[in-house]
Records
---
Amino acid sequence: MTRQGKEKLIKLFFLGIATVSILILGLIVVFLFSEGVPIFQEVSVYNFLFGKEWYPTYDPPEFGILPLIVGSLVVTVLSSLIAVPLGVLSAIFIAEIAPVAIRDFLKSAIELLAGLPSVVLGFFGMVVLAPWMQETFDLPTGLNIVNASFMLAIMAIPTISSISEDALYAVGKEFKEASYALGATRYETITRVIVPTALSGISAAVILGMARAIGETMVVLMVAGGAAAMPEGLFDPVRPMPASIAAEMGEAPFRSGHYHALFATGIVLFFLTLFFNLIADYVSNRFKQVGSATL
């Protein structure tokens, strides 16, 4: 076989793999919608999205997922407020400030943190953090928004730090050398040259970290409290959408209204995750640098 023939064969192989991946994703989306849409024969889209009562086993059942949506968004936003500063600052320290030995240690530690199973973090939050919060702040339960947000932040930090670090490494040396040649300090170079140049990748890292948090299941199932009600404070228990799907799918009768409502909740979660990914793609292209700083 000639070299051109081998190249064509390799191209066809990778094209086939990509096609199979897209096909599998398409089939999953079709299945999700086919199982979720029938619920709207029993309840309107408005009442489903903005209803405040989630009692699928009542007679008649109530399928309002607004408390689940609010729980997901509150936990995601609060975890992002914790994870974004820690993730971005750690990436800046590793990429631009830390000595080589410390850099290698911190990089390995963050990668190890990314490898922790979510059930382990959930177990830690349930048996260690929850009792401590309950005793320290005199709370009815330590399984609440703050606990879930802190655990999700730990899970999101490696994603934010790793992608931000790659964006910082992509900044060309000539940018830094030009800044130092003009008399700028290291702090000025980092804050006024390196970070603005890598803003595209850092912004994408932040949004992808938030998408990672909103789609997490096991942690919020174990430590968020499981209360399908509108929260009134940061120490109230909630039930985010992934936790509700995981907790109730095994109990829902096949092809029942409850069953279809859980799939419809998955559709809402799908669109939220898609929204975060579209924002990440837009920000990445909108603020993309050209030349040696391209990422």
Note: The chain has a mean pLDDT of 88.
---
Amino acid sequence: MNDPFAHVAALSGVSEAVASAREAVDRLLGHRILRRRSAEVSAESALRGARASAELEGAPAPLEDVRAGLVDDPVVQGALRVSASLGSLAPTWRVAPRQALARLHVLAVSGSDAGELGRPRASLEATDPLALGSPPSPSEVADRLSSLSDLLTAPTEAPALVVAAVAEGELLALRPFGSADGLVARAAARLTLIDRGLDPKSLAAPEVGHVELGSAYGEAIRAYVSGTPSGVAQWVRHCAEATALGARDALAVCEAFTRR
């Protein structure tokens, strides 16, 4: 098949999970508060998504402490910088994904003592917060990053959520930079949802859903790494559920804004 994303979309249970997530996002996008306060909901989503992404990377922090600027953990700060960049990076993601990934990595680890920021790692050293085991070799990383970039800029019949899930899954599996790869991968998924029109204002935070689903995040990405059709399908279904939960969380934010 010339459309690998469409092949993934046809796997067992994927279309139903994606449709359910789409319904949840559509309910969110139809909320009346967004006619005048969508920027505030987007900002709250960015904050919640960053905090959740940092937790998934091994740096949990109370939301209100993050909101108040009381958390100086470098992972949390990197997650906040990455989250704040999504709107400006969406146009680059559409035409030059590798460039956008490099920028995301720079933002994620800026101020740390990481190696060459934004460049794929040249060794087998990589952090492993999701217990994936030994990372792929640098040569495999280079090949798969190139293939992913080509796929992301090619036409596809697959829904945005499938493309986002595969992009995130590949980046988590590859750990291309050796540090902060989870922050970069989850940001790539959100950029895909923005660019491909599922969530153009970045209102839903799938990261929040991933955290809510607990250990299922690690289990699902390890299934994806196995490379089997059932493993890939499990991962995409998980991402769809996380997106739906993120949309419901944002819907609760909208309701809270209506009471203010």
Note: Residues 33 and 69 are 27 Å apart (CA to CA).
---
Amino acid sequence: MWFKNLHLYRLPRNWAADAEQLAAQLGKLTQQGCHATDPRSIGWVAPRDGGALVHSVNQQWLLALGVEEKLLPASIVKRFASDKAKEIEEAEGRRIGRREMREIQQEMTLELLPRAFIRSRSTYGWIDPINGWLVIDSASPAKAEEFLEHLHKSLDALPAKVLKVTQSPSAAMTGWVADGEAPVGFTLDQDLELRSTDKASVRYVNHTLEGEEIRQHIATGKIVTRLAMTWNDRISFVLNDQLQIKRLVFLDILKEQAEGQGENADERFDIDFTLMTGEVVQLLDDLVTALGGEVAA
């Protein structure tokens, strides 16, 4: 279990929550699967087949939000509705109006839904009640918000807040690139995006950041909005201006620690999850420090 994209939310440190109670509350909104005429189904599923809704390892909790969606393109509905409208017009010798056409489209949607293919996906979230983190693994901000919204619906109280730091990520990253010096524990890699106030952007991929050209962009007012970095030669990632961590890669030196451990898939899963959470907590602590610390509540 290795997360790839991190959306960060703060919980109180030593959050007084219980895994079993949390699972019981999640159990009220489990995924039921798409019924014949349901276009979509959403709810909590077990992160491990046959396991609990909250997978707990060393006081670290893993959750999974399952989503099923019927694949029914609007073009297909429109085609079937058009054929149905022609049949009515020929049989009754009249034209179909706009309102009636909308009703036919709605009828065809209900008729076609039971035959539509179902696409399934899961979004994972990790809760660290000790250090006070809620981390959602999603490349899409919309899916992260979907997870958070469903968690709010499921729990009696969820004291999760967006992480706020003293220095904006853009200002910090711009300073690091301009000075050619990363904060302690980090190195600057070779992927970079700069943007001006009029939204013009420049991207560099596998490009050295030490050239005068990049500093000239900064001197003319462009700010860094995405920057690839590596933490302690163990994790590489891309930080963006929204304080989201993208393209998280756990380097070989870290994964080698997990190889050969565990006698079965379940044990290896727990070892990977433990290793990942332990490393990411340290990464987040160092990153928050590099950004001037958290804003006091």
Note: Helices lie at 19-26, 74-92, 98-112, 141-154, 169-179, 212-219, 252-255, 265-290.
